[in-house]
C-alpha cells in the first residue's frame, strides 16, 4: 500500500466518515434527549440532584447506542478484531467526553451560574456539553479507538494482510521538516 497524501483523497475518506459519525451522533443525541427528559421529568421527579442522575443515565444509554453505530457503520473499516479492548477504549473515551463534559456544564450552570430549570438543564447538558464532547470524541475515536494504523497492525499480526508503506521521495531542500514525508492526517 502506498502512502497517499493528496488533499482530495484524504478529504474523500474523511468526509464520509465524519458524516456517518454525525448521523450516529444524531441518533445518540435523540436517545440521550429522550432518556434525559424522561428521567428528569418523570422517573426522578422527586429526587434531589435529579439533573445529575438524569445526565448520567441518559449518557450511558446513548453511549451504548453510539458504540453499535460507530463500530458497525461509521468506523466499520477500522474496527479492531479485539472487540473487548475496543469496547473498553470506546466507553472510556465516551464516558470522559460524553459524561464528564456535560456533567461539568450542568454543574457550572446549576451551582456557579444558578441557572436551574428544565430549559437551562437541557441547554447546558444537551447543547453545550454534547457539542464540546462531540469534538473530542470524534478525534479520539478516529485516531485512537478505531485507528486505521492499529487496525492494519492487528491484521498484519494475525497474518491476514501484509501492509507495505512506501514513503514519498524526500525533497532536496536543506530543511529537515521539508525532507520529512507527509503522511497526511494522523491515523490515515
Structural notes for this entry:
This protein has one domain (7-179). It contains six helices and no strands. With 188 residues, the protein is mostly helical. The chain has helices at residues 7-43, 50-74, 83-112, 118-145, 148-158, 176-179.
Describe, in short, the structure shown:
The two termini are 12 Å apart. It is built from 6 helices and no strands. It has 188 residues and is mainly alpha-helical.
SSE topology sketch:
Layout: H1 7-43, H2 50-74, H3 83-112, H4 118-145, H5 148-158, H6 176-179
Cα end-to-end separation: 12 Å
Overall helicity: over 70%
Number of helices: 6
Average pLDDT level: 79
Shape: elongated
Task: State the major sheet.
Answer: none
As residue ranges, the low-confidence spans are: 162-167, 169-188
Number of strands: 0
**Total tally of structural domains:** 1
Helix-strand topology string:
HHHHHH
| Rg over alpha carbons | 21 Å
Strand fraction equals under 5%
Structural class: mainly alpha
Identify the quaternary structure here: single chain
Descriptive keywords:
6 helices, elongated, 188 residues
Amino acid at each position: 500500500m502506498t502512502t497517499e497524501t493528496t488533499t482530495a483523497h484524504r478529504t474523500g475518506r474523511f468526509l464520509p466518515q465524519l458524516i456517518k459519525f454525525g448521523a450516529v451522533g444524531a441518533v445518540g443525541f435523540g436517545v440521550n434527549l429522550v432518556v434525559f427528559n424522561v428521567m428528569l421529568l418523570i422517573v426522578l421527579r422527586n429526587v434531589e440532584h435529579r439533573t445529575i442522575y438524569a445526565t448520567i443515565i441518559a449518557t450511558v444509554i446513548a453511549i451504548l447506542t453510539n458504540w453499535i453505530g460507530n463500530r458497525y457503520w461509521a468506523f466499520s473499516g477500522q474496527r479492531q478484531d479485539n472487540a473487548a479492548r475496543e469496547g473498553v477504549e470506546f466507553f472510556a473515551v465516551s464516558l470522559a467526553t460524553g459524561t464528564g463534559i456535560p456533567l461539568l456544564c450542568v454543574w457550572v450552570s446549576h451551582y456557579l451560574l444558578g441557572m436551574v430549570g428544565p430549559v437551562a438543564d437541557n441547554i447546558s447538558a444537551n447543547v453545550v456539553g454534547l457539542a464540546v464532547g462531540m469534538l473530542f470524541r470524534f478525534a479520539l475515536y478516529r485516531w485512537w479507538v478505531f485507528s486505521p494504523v492499529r487496525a492494519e497492525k492487528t491484521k498484519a499480526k494475525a497474518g491476514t494482510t501484509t501492509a507495505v508503506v512506501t514513503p514519498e521521495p524526500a525533497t532536496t531542500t536543506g530543511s529537515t521538516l521539508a525532507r520529512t514525508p507527509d503522511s497526511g492526517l494522523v491515523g490515515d
